[in-house]
Amino acid sequence: MVRLLTCLLLWTATTVVASEPQPEIATGRTGIKAASATEYMAVTANPHATKAAIQMLAKGGTAVDATIAAQLVLGLVEPQSSGIGGGALILSYRADHKKTFYYDGRETAPMAVDENYFMRDGKPRPFMQTVIGGYSVGVPGLMRVLELAHQRDGKLPWKQLFTPAIDLAESGFKVSTRLHQLLKHLPQVAARPAIKHYFFNTAGEPYPVGYMLKNPAYAQTLRTLANKGAEAFYQGDIARAIVAAVSRDAINPGRMTLKDLAGYRAKVRQPLCSSFLNFRVCGASPPSSGGTTVGAILGMLQQFPLQNYPVPSAELTHLFTEASELAFADRNAYLGDPDFVSVPTEALVAQSYLTARAKLINPNKAEPASAGKPLAAPEHITADSPEMPNTSHLVIVDQYGNGVSMTTTIETGFGSRLMVGGFLLNNQLTDFSFTPSDAKHHLVANRIQPGKRPRSSMSPTIVFNQQGDLRLLVGSPGGSRIIDYTVRTILYHLAKQMPIAEAIAAGNIAAIGRNLEIEPGTLTTKQIARLKAMGHSVVERDLNSGIHAIALIKDTLYGGADPRREGNVAGR
Question: What does the alpha-carbon distance between residue 19 and residue 433 come to, in Å, rounded to a whole number?
Fold first, then answer.
């Protein structure tokens, strides 16, 4: 794809608070989830998936092998968040090369779309009206990216990685409290016959907690993919079923074709690395906004005497908020698919630029944030791009010293609500900006275009120490709040020396350009009053992250799973 070097004018859009997706509903908190090991470790969003990963590691598999087995199980037991009908971004560290590889399995827009795809009578279509049905479905990237990672970094036979998910789909698994609550409370889950038949009884009620749910259709799909490889997803019966579901949706048909599926390719990209204190922080470069924005927030924060500010405190929360809002202003203006727009990726995390940006932070007062002008940056405009917080993150370290940090998603909870072959299809196209330009026809970097990948906030991250050794693997679901969840965990663990599981469980903060959001109980009444006096609009609400991390300290693996969800950590 030829890089489009269109000159775009800078325009700061009026914030549209109503369009920002709210945090995923909370389904309860458990105690701190922690474990240690010396050989290998896996942390995923569901015990079944963690078990599958550990099985592969015990058989001598690599972190990538374990990742594939875990992901296939997640698509069964945590279907609202990820699956083979979606996409993923993978950071894979190879100990033998001492190098991190970045595999991009982000979905793409069908070739038949145009820049006004989401517009009706000059206005953006309502979000949920666009989500449900075929109109929102992007070309899935997960199977291609898993195969790419396996070809490069796997060890066990491809077919063997499918066994845990196939067996579980056939024997059945018990509906968890979390899955039941999401089926019950998320909007319009039973919007199409296939998904309604699978998750709901004849009375229209979601199956209760503990119900043994079987998915023979998914088992058959996986058996085909295990025997024939990822190509069987993109051509043949599975591909025809996907296109039929999307293009023949009775209410909201989309424009995906068999050619779109056959032409999809996962990409090997350069990870983006930046410095924080004495560490090297590597993340996903565009089309993800995670690497640049995580790096920018940390790069600004290190300009302040972090050792002077306890956790929790109004002062540290204030600095975090101001750095986050400055970084998000840049994210909103400049980030998009680098195959279509020029993105100043390295310049956004350059130390000289972040030092200058940090000088805009008043330690005693909240200031409005606007996009800066990094070196050689094109001029873009910003526009609202909703990102729903239903995603999943896993981290794995194997016995060979390899590590994987992967974020995977079908976008909103239960995606487009279209179900094919026992799996759900994504609604990833709604991650594009609905409005392609302003009244003066100044273009938005993240507007939809044929074959383009939507901007993402997924932030799989791997941190190295001064010697270049693995130190931390971390990431989270949470829509655009993923970035702040990931940064806060890194900050608390590496700068404030909190044990990793405690850093994960500590109160979340989100400052993405609207309000300062904090989890209830994070700060005292006095601390909140102090923040309000500084000029912050403070909102207390559940911030239901799914942070998973592994810290490596003196030859020991320390894992933590987020107590806000049903994930767990295991190792040997």
Answer: 12
What gap in Å lies between CA 26 and CA 294, rounded to an integer? 25
Q: Alpha helices, DSSP H only, in 154-203?
A: 163-171, 177-185, 193-199
Q: What is the DSSP string of 361-402?
A: -BTTB---------TTPPP-B-------S-EEEEEEE-TTS-
Model confidence at 19: pLDDT above 50: no
373 contacts: CB under 8 Å, gap ≥ 6: none
Largest CA distance in the chain: 62
pLDDT for res 375: 85
Of the candidate ranges 31-40, 357-366, 379-388, 522-531, the one whose mean pLDDT is the lowest = 379-388
Q: Which pLDDT band, with edges at 50, 70 and 90, does 389 fall under?
A: low
Give the Cβ contact number of residue 551 at 10 Å: 23
Instruction: Return the bridge partners of 37, or none.
Output: 557
List CB contacts of 157: < 8 A, sequence separation 6 or more.
Answer: none
In single-letter form, the type of residue at position 37 comes to: A
Amino acid occupying residue 508: N
Is the omega angle on the peptide bond into residue 312 within 30 degrees of 0, that is, cis? yes
> So which residues are the catalytic ones?
391
- Return the residue matching tokens 């039929």: 244
Strands 279-283 and 538-540: unpaired
pTM here?
A: 0.94
Beta bridge partners of 276: 279
